[in-house]
């Protein structure tokens, strides 16, 4: 039988017997509410279902949730979740009982990340706040549906507030125009590296990225065995551990696993690059072979690191007189040039490995709108009387 008692605060506490001990189900405004909750628990007991401790601390729920996530998400994703939990969630909620976390408190918590600093800028980006709230919702959803320690999710349908004084702007896509790209590639084609002048690593990498649209992490993981005639299989990517050691990981999502065709000019440049790489490996003791047989190795036989690539490409762009657009700029350049040449949005989406065509449309909305406007002007000009 359930046990009820009125507390000094005026609220009612409901308790049931579990393993020979009285376990609190929480406090309620009225005795009727306490009786209803107790009846639900007694029913679960009758049918042999587990009765979870509704006084569980939030950090206990988090530990259980993280174990569940660790078994179901990529390692890199799990690391991101763990950092968000440790730095942004637990400091506020970790010491609280899960059932004592209420909607207004969650709203205040997420709004705090959007406060303005002394320069009038938000302390955390809108995207970061979306992630934090999404993680909180997921934890509470797990508490409701897996642990059964909450009746409902207090964060359900909550949205990230937007400051009235701050307009959330869509980040502008940075890409090279065809003229800029050709200028950069022409410079790189004639540039001679001091140590191995004939080893055109960065020319080949820039050309390859701009002609395939691969993410830099995907390109750096490619092996020569992934190239089959005019096709390339993309099935892994590079990342770095806490000690900055390279490791190969799975791709971003199922759509990222793909086989794409490459044009004859790129195949020809890759073949020339491979011949030169083999020639140096066999003929120069200072030039070492990468044990994984990757395409874009440095002369030490190592994988390239994102930070070195960034610094090196910035320097080359400056020397070529072209604004640096970031390593992702080559991917954007490939997509934009495809769209400007008249290729369908679906083809671009598949080639880039986007999860949905909406991702592609949203990313390149400004470009597609301009193309549509140009096409409409052609139609208007053709039909004008």
Automatic annotation (TrEMBL):
Name used for this protein in its record: Recombinase XerC
Segments forming domain Tyr recombinase: 171-377
Protein's organism: Heyndrickxia camelliae
Gene Ontology molecular function terms on file: DNA binding
Pfam families for the chain: Phage_int_SAM_3 (PF14659), Phage_integrase (PF00589)
Source superkingdom: Bacteria
Biological processes annotated in GO: DNA integration; DNA recombination
Keywords: DNA integration, DNA recombination, DNA-binding
InterPro entries: DNA_brk_join_enz, Integrase-like_cat_sf, Integrase_catalytic, Integrase_recombinase_N, Integrase_SAM-like_N, Tyrosine_recombinase_XerCD
Family according to the record: Belongs to the 'phage' integrase family.
Lineage: Bacteria, Bacillati, Bacillota, Bacilli, Bacillales
């Amino acid at each position: 039988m359930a046990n009820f008692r009125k507390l000094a605060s005026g609220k009612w506490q409901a308790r049931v017997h579990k393993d020979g001990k009285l376990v609190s189900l929480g406090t309620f405004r009225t005795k009727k509410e306490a009786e209803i909750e107790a009846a639900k628990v007694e029913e679960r007991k009758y049918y042999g279902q587990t009765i979870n401790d509704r006084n569980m601390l939030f950090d206990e729920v988090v530990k259980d949730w993280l174990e569940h996530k660790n078994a179901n998400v990529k390692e890199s994703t799990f690391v991101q979740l763990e950092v968000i939990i440790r730095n942004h969630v637990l400091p506020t909620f970790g010491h609280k009982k899960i059932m004592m976390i209420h909607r207004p408190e969650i709203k205040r918590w997420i709004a705090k990340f959007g406060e303005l600093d002394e320069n009038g800028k938000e302390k955390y980006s809108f995207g970061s706040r979306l992630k934090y709230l999404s993680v909180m919702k997921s934890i509470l959803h797990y508490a409701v549906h897996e642990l059964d320690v909450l009746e409902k999710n207090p964060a359900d349908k909550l949205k990230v507030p937007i400051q009235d004084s701050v307009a959330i702007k869509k980040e502008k896509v940075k890409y090279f125009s065809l003229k800029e790209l050709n200028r950069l590639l022409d410079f790189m084609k004639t540039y001679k590296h001091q140590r191995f002048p004939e080893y055109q690593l960065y020319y080949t990498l820039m050309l390859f990225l701009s002609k395939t649209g691969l993410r830099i992490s995907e390109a750096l993981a490619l092996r020569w065995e992934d190239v089959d005639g005019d096709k390339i299989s993309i099935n892994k990517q590079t990342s770095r551990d806490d000690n900055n050691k390279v490791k190969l990981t799975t791709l971003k999502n199922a759509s990222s696993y793909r086989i794409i065709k490459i044009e004859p000019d790129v195949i020809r440049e890759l073949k020339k690059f491979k011949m030169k790489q083999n020639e140096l490996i066999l003929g120069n003791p200072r030039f070492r072979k990468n044990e994984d047989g990757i395409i874009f190795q440095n002369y030490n036989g190592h994988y390239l690191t994102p930070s070195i690539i960034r610094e090196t490409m910035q320097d080359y762009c400056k020397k070529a007189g072209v604004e640096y657009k970031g390593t992702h700029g080559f991917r954007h350049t490939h997509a934009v040039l495809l769209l400007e040449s008249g290729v369908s949005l679906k083809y671009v989406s598949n080639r880039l490995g986007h999860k949905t065509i909406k991702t592609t449309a949203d990313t390149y909305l400004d470009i597609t709108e301009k193309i549509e406007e140009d096409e409409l002007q052609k139609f208007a000009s053709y039909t004008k009387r």
